[in-house]
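The instructor's notes for this session suggest beginning with a concrete chain rather than abstract definitions. Hand out the sequence below and ask the class to guess, before any prediction is shown, which regions might be ordered.
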Amino acid sequence: ASKNDVANSELNLGNIYRALKKYDSAYLMIDKAAATYQELKNKSSYAEALFGLGILNVKLKKYATAKANFFEGLKTAKQVSDKYDVVKGYKHLSDLYAINKDYKNALKYHTLYTASKDSIMNAESQNKIDELQIKYGVDKKEQEIAHQKTIIKQKKKQIFYSILISILLLILAIVIIVFIIVAKRQKEKILHKENENLQKELELKNKDLVCNVSKIFAKNQVINHVARSLINSSDGFKQANQKLIKGIVNELKQNMDETGWKEFDIRFARVHENFYSELDKRFPDLTKTERKLCTMLKLGMSSKEIASISRIRPKSVNTSRSRLRKKLGLSNDARLFDFLKRL
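After discussion, reveal the predicted structure:
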């Protein structure tokens, strides 16, 4: 900033101090401003500063010094034809002489002041207006500061409540998540237990099926053994009875396996409701024998058990299993039991 700007700030600050009745501080500021104006030959501002010093000296009852200030200020104002400051000078001198009870000179300068005030602004009124403006400016600034403080306080409160709400929502979210996880684990535990029970129940039913099918085919073996005995002993029967016995034996052999499998299929379908339909849907080209093999393999029966029931050698069962594996599209590493268990 330039020296003139600094001096203006000092003069304004001095006037503020004067309005606040801090006369020592005001005198210091205005005196510094006057010195700078004089150095810069800014006569209009110098006159203002001199009037300011005069007013302060009047306040301090330094009337002689105040008189010198006013006359020097009036002289300087006349040099630059500043009518406003000239009017101020007349008014200040009139008031000063009146204070000192020099009514002759007070009337003289009051007359000069009155004669000049019609063409220019009344100096006294202007001084009061300036003083009010300064006070208004200070008050307005204080109001602005108070308003800003209120806004900051409100924003802090908003931030506090926002953080508080965020924390509460986070806690609520954590509680909900924990509740969901616990409920999910509990549900999984129940489902796992139910699956275990179902699996155990299925295993029991499968064992029961294996037991039943073993009984059925054991009974068939007995019937087969009886039929063979009848055939072997038929020569000892009468000629008329030999034909009848052969017919009975043939009928027993024809219906023996079909009756056993029919009874087994009924029991198996009750336990594995969708097995046959899914098997036929995915592998419609399976033969009746291959279909039976699939059923026994699903029950977890070994080749030896299957051979015993089917009245064939275990080697033949293994051959049938290999053939079935190819038809089902399984590799050599895949287990038939695991595949059929999923159907």
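Then share the key points. The mean pLDDT is 87. The chain is about 85% helix and 0% strand.
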